[in-house]
Design goal:
By secondary structure, the protein is α/β, with parallel strands linked by helices. It contains 17 helices and 13 strands. The strands form 2 sheets. Strands 3-2-1-4-5-6-7 form a 7-stranded parallel beta sheet, with helices on both faces. The protein has a 6-stranded parallel beta sheet with strand order 10-9-8-11-12-13, sandwiched between helices. α1 links the parallel β1 and β2. α1 crosses α17, α8 runs parallel beside α9 and α10 packs across α11. The longest helix has 16 residues.
């Protein structure tokens, strides 16, 4: 009998979403000969209520408390303890990199672990310092030579796994699609009336787990710095505001609203259907990510609704936006019109403000006609994600 332990110490952002994807696949494969155990934090009980978790006698849950301070060592110790207690034969992690370097030295012998890597170091190689380069290579050498490491899934990049397998002389690196969990076939609804947004106003949406690395604060800073540019526009932030930026987020929100900005915030776990309707009702979807070395689930909404993203050029994110023609680049729009920035305005905020100020109806219309949404949806189907992540023995 095999027993797969699926572990995650977080249920924020995409973590809960991926756990549900894994659960649906486990339902297809679970039997007396193959069992699954989901090891998740206690907060999962409350957070999971908005999704359906059909019961199965061969799928079980174990819950654990997460201390205020965690890290790779704590997660590795906790996972190793649970593997022993549950008698797991293999492990699937939704964020493999966060367990390094400790996991290979703590996992019981004979247990194989596979997991997802989001940030692909090759895309930042040119701008990385010597120390970062050394650490990146050491991590991948650990993947290569650790007997406990099974498959290393690189999210949403088909080319890099082949290159890394050749470079490190292994077959451990594999492509994993960034799953599209929304129903792209059903028509999208309209949320402007619900949110109180006028039909003719520009609506910019930014959603998912809200975080500094996703440029959430940069957008608010842009609105605060140039209230005259955005006086007729509406911004919607939908998703849980991360703890690390919560105080700054709400301080900027108050400042922006005091200057007359129209900003709507839904600080909660938001259903896929609402996000799809929000995307479809938007002028553009804002994804001014700092970490362009990885993919974004938001580009799936551009593919499904035909609404362009506004993204930074470069990295894996820029590569995907360009390949599937999913939107416009901040740098290209910014070059058309540069605003005079107030003293102290951050460079990222200025770039976003300049890009949105230069955006006109004609540019948006042309971007929409180029989107290769069906190609992206086909290449990143949820079913393919599930089959690759959890293979049928």
């Amino acid at each position: 009998m095999s027993k797969t332990l699926i572990y995650d110490s977080s249920v924020s952002g995409h973590h809960l979403e991926y756990l549900h994807h894994f659960y649906e696949r486990a339902l297809e494969l679970a039997s007396r000969e193959r069992q699954f155990v989901f090891a998740v934090p206690e907060s999962f009980v409350e957070r999971s209520q908005k999704l359906l978790w059909q019961k199965n006698e061969n799928i079980s849950f174990v819950y654990f408390a997460v201390p205020a301070k965690t890290g790779a060592r704590w997660d590795s110790q906790n996972l190793s303890r649970l593997v022993r207690e549950q008698g797991a034969t293999d492990v699937l992690l939704s964020a493999l990199m966060s367990f390094l370097p400790w996991l290979p030295f703590m996992l019981p012998r004979g247990v194989k672990v596979s997991g997802i890597v989001y940030m692909i170091y090759l895309y930042r190689w040119k701008k990385s310092g010597l120390k970062t380069k050394i650490l990146d290579v050491l991590k991948y050498l650990l993947f290569r030579f650790s007997p406990c490491i099974g498959r290393v899934f690189l999210l949403n990049d088909k080319v890099v796994p082949r290159y890394l397998n050749k470079l490190y002389r292994t077959q451990k690196f594999a492509f994993l699609p960034d799953p599209v969990a929304i129903d792209a076939q059903s028509p999208a609804g309209e949320v402007r009336t619900e949110l109180g947004v006028p039909a003719g106003a520009r609506l910019f949406s930014h959603f998912g787990g809200l975080d500094t690395r996703k440029g959430t604060l940069d957008i608010l800073e842009a609105v605060c710095a140039f209230p005259q540019v955005f006086r007729d526009d509406y911004f919607v932030f939908a998703g849980r505001v991360g703890k690390g930026l919560r105080e700054r987020f709400y301080a900027l929100l108050e400042t922006a609203r005091a200057k007359g900005a129209h900003i709507i915030v839904k600080d909660e776990f938001v259903a896929y259907e609402f996000l799809k309707n929000l995307a479809a009702s938007s002028t553009a979807i804002l994804i001014p990510y700092h970490n362009t070395e990885q993919s974004s689930g938001l580009i799936a909404y551009a593919a499904a609704t035909g609404v362009p993203v506004i993204a930074p050029r470069g990295g894996l994110l820029g590569k995907l936006v360009k390949r599937y023609r999913l939107g416009l680049f901040i740098e290209d729009l910014q070059a058309q019109k540069v605003l005079t920035a107030p003293a102290g305005t951050a460079a990222r905020a200025l770039a976003i403000a300049s890009a949105l100020a230069a955006l006109d109806a004609g540019t948006v219309k042309r971007a929409k006609t180029l989107i290769r949404g069906n190609d992206y949806l086909r290449d990143n189907s949820l079913e393919e994600f599930q089959k690759i992540a959890i293979e049928e023995f």
